[in-house]
Hints:
8-stranded mixed sheet; alpha/beta; 8 strands
Amino acid sequence: METVAIVGVGLIGGSFGLALKKAGFAGKILGVSAPGTLEKALERGAIDQGLPLEQALQHADLVYLSQPISRILETLASIEPWLRPGSLVTDAGSTKAKIVGQAQRSIHQAQFLGGHPLAGKERRGVQEADPDLFLGRTYVLTPGDPSELETAPACEFIQWVKAIGAVPLSLSPQEHDRIVSLTSHLPQLLASALASTLAGRLGPAEHLQVAGPGLRDTIRLASSPYDIWGDILKTNTCEIEAALAAYVAKLEDLRAHLCSERMRQEFQIANEFASRLKQQHTCESTAQVRSTPSLEESTG
Amino acid sequence: METVAIVGVGLIGGSFGLALKKAGFAGKILGVSAPGTLEKALERGAIDQGLPLEQALQHADLVYLSQPISRILETLASIEPWLRPGSLVTDAGSTKAKIVGQAQRSIHQAQFLGGHPLAGKERRGVQEADPDLFLGRTYVLTPGDPSELETAPACEFIQWVKAIGAVPLSLSPQEHDRIVSLTSHLPQLLASALASTLAGRLGPAEHLQVAGPGLRDTIRLASSPYDIWGDILKTNTCEIEAALAAYVAKLEDLRAHLCSERMRQEFQIANEFASRLKQQHTCESTAQVRSTPSLEESTG
């Protein structure tokens, strides 16, 4: 792997460039973005050179698509003519089935391997890029078939994923989308719906004084921008609908049993799941060298 | 105010004792609790003496009920014969209408004034008591009629509420219960329901790796114990049902519009509410001297 083209040099793309360099990548990193973004990316040292898409693709052994999901889909549909045979195309989109499907239809000259780094920050843009963004973070890879992880370009890419401190995890695109509909998209909608419900039912500022840290944590994701979530909702609609349906059914069930002993069991189940998740987090934190964990609103 | 009886010397009661002393209260603080708890409370210096309920009441100018809600209701129903005429009875329960109603039926010798300090910690018990627990925190008072705040014992109590660093806010019991059903009880049920839904739909441990800080924050309240929440659910059932119904309706609405432009507006409304709440929090933090904000799972 001698030349990497990062298409969309924002927080994730910029961080990937910085992380590669920190991990000892000695090749060339090309950036494809708007002129103003390329300038900032060059200043940050996240890329070595800005180029138009077609030129960058002609040189790249690894094409890293870190655009918004809808742009990734467009890029995949158009880049085939310029890809180097034997190169690897990957992406960092937060939903995978639509992206992998588009790649299967459009990419033939090169190998495509979908990816989703579970990393991010509250603030976006290459100016927020951080070489340690992926440290200790799960990096999901979504081969159409497991054998796709065993090709030479895939093996080399996975080595670099590990080198930047991330923890690769292989899932099918469908499995990935089902899991994130529960672990990421459902929490997002639930927080947005909570904020929207409260906005309609709480009056003067003093009502907000009757709120503690519990509300603030539960509602934190409500700050997430629609710009990112619109794409996620449109590319994982079925799974999100199913997750919401299951969640609403659970809420209706709780509502019907507010005063019954059933609630004790539900709290018990919830307590146990929360402990499992906390334990998981503790393991990750131990693996992580960073002092402050980054937030991931912006990446879904 | 020369003698205070704290009935239920746990986290809140113990902290109230410590906070009074730190604020310069020179009178006597009596504690009513199980023998083991009284021992710990004496060690911590949260009380000066442990006494049986009836004896403590006979000496107290201020009776501070910081038991679980169901115990507060029982205590209110039985203490009338031992109360000093002219004394003030208050409580720290997280729901107010049932408690104020019980007090109106049972307390005649003394004045009753309901209260709800929005303060707490993840861990309970007098060993966690903290003289700074109330610093910068809203302390809701729920008079049946506003004139109840103007009696001599009420004025003196409110002075002490301010002296321990809390910010008094007057609401009717019904108004309080409606607001906390939205700002506290709804977030709790929503987090419990999320944890319970995920527990039923996520399989092996590796699925938990596909979760970021967003999920952890949204689900944090799911660790709350039923021991506290059972009472809250049973004493604020109607308001909680109404809050849940509004929330479920909002979720159903979002589910029907996942891919439409309506979602952009909903995110916009949610973004704005989240900003308002953050701003409120920033104001509180500025008012607060403490370095780490306490959590309030345990107090609802």
